[in-house]
Every structure is written in structure tokens, then in C-alpha cells.
Design goal:
about 375 residues; alpha+beta; Phosphorylase Kinase, domain 1; Transferase(Phosphotransferase), domain 1; 2 domains; six-stranded mixed β-sheet; two-stranded antiparallel ribbon; 12 helices; about 15% strand; binds adenosine-5'-triphosphate
Length: about 375
């Protein structure tokens, strides 16, 4: 029997409808299982790329020669896969991984994405890939700006805000041209209309990854676009310090990245704490802007955190400041071999005003996120 309230809400256009996958065929391709098996050589181990919480990813080649990433769902996570297909086929942006199609056949659920040949930002930050090369500072800034543009689009570019809920460096993928695109929308949620200020949404099932959870989300289940901003801030610290959020292999005071970051800022030892590869390569005025926005992203209170548009613009400014400082240095040292001095960092640290807003979450302390195959701990209700 039909639910009379449901029918009424639907009649009034107030009931949120999730389109059935069949109805999405016009927006992306529907593949047969035979096509998927042909593309991946029957999910051959040589096609294997990696494994996430929701499924296994393979490299494949479609009949027209297009190289793709094929994500095969674990049986218990087909809901997340359907969510990802429904959302992604309605979103298009240069900084979101494109959905090419899907396959639902028998007990198989498979999603086909554009192939991101350089893997994830996490692979480079944590040296996971065999062909690992440390990323330069400017390169890192470009990648963060791309990710910020993608997230800004999700929050404001569509009719309804989309809260990603799975932002982390392993979900920031890099294509051949090093363009950063956000992936993994299995946990994403539609928010209210994007122009609305009423963004608070109570979420009874807290999902995500330890070390990447906004405090108000864990404690009160309050899910807003500012929860994504918090975790984006955590990623900005990872990019600068070149390490994971939690690392049990480090001395006690360094296990939690944000606690360590705050300590190094307070004591003026940031020069020694950041990724060794970046030492002497960041212009102090650029670092100042970068830390200002990173610290405000991880503010305890969601409404004090910036919107992603502001994050994007500030990172662009930080990149510009770095470019200008580098040009000045190059005019003094035409060989291009120069280092920014430690003393100039100390001077800037004394003036850094963002320290108070840097809030570190204890959530997940004591848990390792240095899992060797890069699958971080999944929190499910
Ligand atoms: N479109 C893609 N192109 C190339 N590699 C991809 C693509 N999507 C995912 N991968 C790779 O496949 C592996 C598994 O990715 P997946 O998104 O399933 O999990 P994850 O983000 O690593 O972990 P979790 O699911 O726990 O968040 C990772 O190494 C990821 O870099």
C-alpha cells in the first residue's frame, strides 16, 4: 500500500527523489559485465590498481581504446556505489574525476571512471608509489588549488550543495598533466539548495576516516559543507609537513599532525618540522598566507571556517607570492640555486596570528593511519 504522506510530499515536490540507475543511462554509459570483463581481462591481477574500503580498482581498456579505472564494489557497499553513480553523473567539473559509466548485473556492481595515471596526492606525500618523486612546493600548491576548485564547485556550483564527506589526500587524484581531481563520492550527500544558509544537517550515522573528521560532525553529527572545509585544512597540513594525520611510528608529541603543527608553530621550529624536501624552498610570505588559510580551515567552530571559495583564492594568492619571491631571488642568484633563510621563517612565526584558530581534533588518536596499503580506517556507525 502506498504511504499517503509520501505521496503527498512527492505531489508537492517536497520529497527528495533519488533517480533509479536505469534512468541515468542518458547521462553516462551502461556497460554489460561482458564488456567490463573484456576491458579488465576478467579482473586480471595484472590490471589491479588498488583496494579501497568499498571496492577494488582495476585499470581497463574499453573497445574504443579509452583507458579507464574500473571500480568493483564489495557486496556490502553497493549502496555507496549507487550513491556515487547518481551524484557523479549529474556533476561535471574539470576538478572532479569523470564518471564514464556503470554496470549492474546479477550481484556485480561496477563503476567506470576516467583513468588518473599519476595516482593520488597521498601516494606522493607519503612516498607510496614506486615511481615516487617528491613534489616541489609550487607543484603542491597547484594541486591544492585544483582540489579547492573542485570542492568549491561541489559546495556552490550545482542546484544543491554536495557535501563530499570523504575528502582526504588519497581521494585527490592526479592525471597525466598533474591536474588534481576529487574522487570517491560514495559517502557524499546532497545538502540544501546551494544558496541557502541553512546548511546544518543532522547525520545520525557518522561515516568517514579517522584523522579526517570535523569535531562537530563526530560529536553532534552536524554535517555541513564546513565539515569538508575542516578536512581540507587537515590535507593542507599534510601537504606542508609531508606526513599522515596520525603516525604511531613517530615520537609521542609528533603522532598527531595537528598537535605537532601547533607545537612547531608556537615554538618557532616549523622550519625543522615541515617536509625536509621543502626546507628553504618556501618563501616566508607565501608560507604565512598558506598557514593562515590552513589554520582557519581547522577552526573548532564551523562558522568561523572560510568557505571553499575563499580557500581557493587564498591559495592562489599564496602561489602568486611564491612566484614573486622566487623571481626576486632568481634575479640575485641567476643559477637558480638559492634557499630561503631559517631566520626569515622565525621572524614570520613571531607575527603569525592564526595560531589560536588551529584546532586539533583528538578523534582517532591512538589509531594508526599509516596502513601500508593506504586504506585508512573507515568509521561506520
Ligand atoms: N580513477 C582512478 N584512476 C586511477 N586510479 C584510481 C582511480 N580511482 C581510484 N584509484 C586508485 O585505486 C586505489 C583504491 O581507490 P579507492 O578510491 O577505492 O580507495 P581509497 O580512497 O584508497 O581508500 P578508501 O576507500 O578507504 O577511501 C587507490 O590507489 C586509488 O589511487
Amino acid at each position: 500500500m502506498k504511504n499517503p504522506l509520501g505521496s503527498l510530499l512527492s505531489f508537492l515536490g517536497l520529497k527528495k527523489k533519488s533517480p533509479r540507475l536505469e534512468l541515468l543511462e542518458g547521462l553516462c554509459c551502461r556497460f554489460s559485465l561482458a564488456q567490463i570483463k573484456a576491458a579488465t581481462n576478467n579482473f586480471h591481477p595484472l590490471s589491479y590498481i588498488g583496494e579501497g574500503a568499498f571496492g577494488t580498482v582495476y585499470k581497463g581498456t574499453l573497445h574504443d581504446g579509452t583507458i579507464v579505472a574500473v571500480k568493483r564494489s564489495k557486496k556490502s557497499y553497493q549502496g555507496e556505489f549507487k550513491n556515487e553513480v547518481r551524484l557523479l553523473c549529474q556533476l561535471r567539473h574539470p576538478h572532479l574525476v569523470s564518471l564514464i559509466g556503470f554496470c549492474v548485473e546479477g550481484s556485480e556492481m561496477v563503476v567506470v571512471f576516467e583513468y588518473m595515471s599519476r595516482g593520488s596526492l597521498a601516494d606522493f606525500l607519503f612516498g607510496i608509489r614506486k615511481d615516487y618523486v617528491p613534489l616541489s612546493w609550487k607543484h603542491r600548491l597547484h594541486i591544492c588549488i585544483g582540489a579547492a576548485r573542485g570542492l568549491h564547485y561541489l559546495h556552490t556550483g550545482a542546484k544543491h550543495a554536495v557535501i563530499h564527506r570523504g575528502i582526504k589526500s588519497s581521494n585527490m587524484l592526479l592525471d597525466e598533466e598533474w591536474c588534481c581531481k576529487l574522487s570517491d563520492f560514495g559517502l557524499s550527500k546532497l545538502g540544501p539548495p546551494s544558496m541557502s544558509k541553512a546548511l546544518i544537517r543532522k547525520d545520525s550515522s557518522v561515516r568517514g576516516t579517522f584523522g579526517y573528521l570535523a569535531p562537530e560532525y563526530v560529536v553532534h553529527g552536524e554535517l555541513t559543507e564546513k565539515s569538508d572545509v575542516y578536512v581540507f585544512g587537515v590535507v593542507l597540513f599534510q601537504v606542508l609537513y609531508g606526513r599522515r594525520t596520525l603516525d604511531l611510528a613517530l615520537p609521542d608529541n609528533q603522532i598527531n599532525l595537528l598537535i605537532w603543527a601547533k607545537e612547531s608553530l608556537r615554538e618557532g621550529t616549523i622550519h625543522h618540522a615541515i617536509d625536509p624536501y621543502l626546507k628553504g624552498r618556501i618563501a616566508p610570505e607565501c608560507l604565512n598566507k598558506y598557514l593562515e588559510i590552513a589554520s582557519s580551515c581547522v577552526h573548532l567552530k564551523g562558522n568561523e571556517r572560510p568557505a571553499m571559495g575563499e580557500v581557493e583564492v587564498t591559495l592562489e594568492l599564496a602561489l602568486e607570492l611564491q612566484g614573486r619571491a622566487d623571481s626576486e631571488m632568481e634575479s640575485i642568484y641567476p643559477s637558480g640555486e638559492f634557499m630561503y633563510e631559517e631566520a626569515s621563517f622565525s621572524a614570520f612565526i613571531r607575527n603569525f596570528a592564526g595560531l589560536d584558530s588551529l584546532y586539533y581534533s583528538e578523534f582517532g588518536s591512538g589509531l594508526s593511519d599509516s596502513d601500508s596499503n593506504n586504506v585508512e580506517n573507515e568509521l561506520s556507525s
